[in-house]
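Objective 1b of the project was to move from sequence-level analysis to a structural picture of ligand recognition. The entry below was assembled by the postdoctoral researcher (A.K.) and checked by the PI before modelling. It contains the amino acid sequence of the target and the SMILES of the bound compound, zinc ion.
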Amino acid sequence: MRLKRNGSYTLHRKSKTKPNGKKTAAEEKKLYLEPEYTKARITDFNFKELVTLPREIDLNEWLASNTTTFFNHINLQYSTISEFCTGETCQTMTVCNTQYYWYDERGKKIKCTAPQYVDFVMTSVQKSVTDEDIFPTKYGKDFPNSFESLVKKICKYLFHVLTHIYWSHFKESVALDLHGHLNALYTHFMLFIREFNLVDPKETVIMDDLTEILCNSTEAQNHIKER
Ligand SMILES: [Zn+2]
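Corresponding predicted holo structure:
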């Protein structure tokens, strides 16, 4: 699916961008932490309740169904800014001071640009979630023993993609008026991985400032509603 872009995008582009098109992390104020933007959410739905395992539903089924849904939504969210994510603008998959490398099937470290990294992630996750031996959909077929560790790996990679959108393409998301979707998706995803301890907190610490604002405001809102 290709989403139509409006022509006004270039107006939002900051002249700070270096001639080679590379924006450094230091140049970017964390725009995504501005209250004006963190307030934007397409829904105030109770995400905490939404991620809780419903009684009568098998844990693995729940993890499989949610992981597949998050994969589709994060893939779609990335596709909205993918034309701005090129080998030139994003030469490495770097978030904050952390650089991510892809590891091939033999465990060999591969240096790649951000769009290549995202492509590796999406291709590999797509392969897993459609593999009947890993994400079984047929009645009577069991989940493999490695299922949980695979889900953890997938969530870690999806987290990297989300952080890249915030770190390098938040302005474009705002220009496209899609930051409300991004914030809602991020909040839902973070509460999900937190609920089932799917990603090591050491991995997510680089986004803790945003996570606290988005997830805590959700919890606070729900608290008010409950009263
Ligand atoms: Zn990028």
